[in-house]
Amino acid sequence: MSKKLYLMRHGETLFNQLKRVQGACDSPLTDLGKEQAKQARDYFIKEQVQLDAAYSSTQERACDTMEIICPDKPYIRKKGLKEWNFGLYEGAPEYLNPPHKAGEESYGAYFLDYGGESVDQVEQRMTDTLTQIMHDLKGENALAISSGGALYSFYLKWRQKRDQRPSFSNCCILIYEYQDGKFYLQTSIDPGK
């Protein structure tokens, strides 16, 4: 049976606004971030998407986004949906992020030397968590809210040659089909545009 995963990024945060590295550390949603979450909520209402289960990263920014989108729906917090841990780079200005090495599409294992995670670790953590969510799903549609780096890592793991690179903007929604233990990107939505 085919199921749908609506994998979403949280709304804009103070650290996003200030151009700070935000992985394991947290910061609150801005007024714009709250508005983005309302636009995502309006998308689900307009499209009449019936969410059978809802999951959020344990981080405040993801939980606050979820509570705006689904104010009356219980949801489960999952540590496996947390953002990529950037180690000593946490809270630093974004311009200090290292450039990608030639031929690479991510930071690879760079942050391991600074107490953070590698892209492979984030991919595996996200895949394990989302596979379990979809396996346990009673119904057709699940919503999971995470963060940009974690969404991107998951995308790198599951992308197909035909896939167009989605936007990873705040409150973007990546819609995946889940079938036979695999994830297939169907489309991406940017409710704010």
UniProtKB/TrEMBL annotation:
- Any Pfam family: His_Phos_1
Name the Gene3D superfamilies for this protein: Phosphoglycerate mutase-like
Q: Which residues form a coiled coil?
A: none
Which SUPFAM superfamilies does this entry report, sorted A to Z?
Answer: Phosphoglycerate mutase-like
The family database entries (PROSITE patterns) matched by this protein are listed as:
PG_MUTASE
Checking InterPro entries in the record gives: His_Pase_superF_clade-1 (IPR013078), His_PPase_superfam (IPR029033), PG/BPGM_mutase_AS (IPR001345), PGM_Phosphatase (IPR050275)
| Species in which this protein is naturally found | Tetragenococcus solitarius
Question: What is this protein's record name?
Answer: Histidine phosphatase family protein
